[in-house]
Amino acid sequence: METLRHWSTRHARGWAVLYRVWARCVPLLAPLLRLLGPRRAAGALLPLERWSKQTFFDCRMCGQCVLSSTGMTCPMNCGKTMRNGPCGGVRADGHCEVKPEMRCVWVAAGEGDARLQQEHTPNWTRRQAPLDARRQGRSTWIELVAPPAAPPSETKSCSTGTVPAAPKEAATAPATVPVSSFEAACRSDAFLVTVEIAPPDSHDPEKLLQRAARFQGLVDAINITDGAGANCHMSSVAAASVLVAHGFEAVCQVGCRDRNRIALQGDVLGAAALGVRNVLCLTGDDVGQGDHPDAKPVFDLDAVNLLATLSGMTSRGEYASGRRLDAQVPLFLGATANPFVPPHAERIANLQRKIDAGARFIQTQFCFDVALLETFMNAFVRRGLHRQARLIVGVGMLPSARGLRWMAEHVPGVHVPEAVTRRIAAAADQRAEGVRWCVETIQALQGIDGVAGVHLMGHRNEAALAQVIVDAELRRTGIAP
Length: 481
Prior knowledge:
481 residues, alpha/beta, 8-stranded parallel β-barrel, 17 helices
């Protein structure tokens, strides 16, 4: 099955030609299918549709086929069922984070889309709507004969019929008044500094507040992770709310792995009620990487569709269902990017989707390879995306070369060149060398066009990260005790 799927991707252009022929032939069956009636007509086409799609594309019959927008590769084979591009955890060999034995669906999709060439390339950056579970198992071929009764703006053609289009994107114009001090900082020309803290493994917030206090006066905002690495901690909504209540500027990370669209909207609404204004949308790590590998992943939305959903709550005052909220939700939305793993050529298109869906700040994965980042930033600036969103590059350090090697080998999506590990390993004081390397990286990033700031990461390593900020002269405020 997988062999045929890859063969179909390699022959994407031929399939597109064949589809056009098929699309012209199917309407000739319209008189017969009308005699049968819609239900029986769909039943007559469904066995052939299911057999052909499953045989050649390993199709899951989701009822919202988008093969022409995904290089004739079915996105439902993705380990996280992502419909809008690759996650940040693709392995260095181009294989899936969730299923290491399988090549990433989106690596193949990018190759197939390139074979479709100019006719289909614009589809690559168009957001695909979340799955409608009610359509599972339905025929889309029947819609070539009897398209759904909807205005043209509400449907779109795809390789196997006509399916609902993605909802209209939220207005991109920012609010007149920033909703948070972090948004105000992002609107300025200042070089931004953010830092990441994991929530505590306790109901007691005291240690969280002590760790956050190290960055008083040193950062524009503190990110609170949401079950990072698929490990359980205090919820990001609660931890971010605690920080806000004590005067810190928090960014609440919200992942799609553990909640469906109902819970996601409810949690963000609750966070806003508690004063949280900055939300970073991400898909989430594979549950198999964490301390509950037996848990059931959800992935009802991907990060792109979560952004679009929250943008609707912010700009239109509507839930994803279209039901009105009592008031628009004041949120400043962000997203993530990973320029350091395959498929490199498709990462900008994926980021374009996120910005179109409402992201106004971007934070990247750890940058250990400045040359790779420069290539990415050239494309970012060339597309003018730096005028739509502020890109903050992830930097950080671990206290030893051993820790770096472990992260490179066990954390999908993290790329650490061997030269970096060798340098840290050769140092008499590896922790101090890690700080020096981090400072040098920040200084190099400041000279790259489009880089708006740095996002510091290092698990339970707050003292060293605060020292990096001061040593790099990003902020001159002294370190809090």
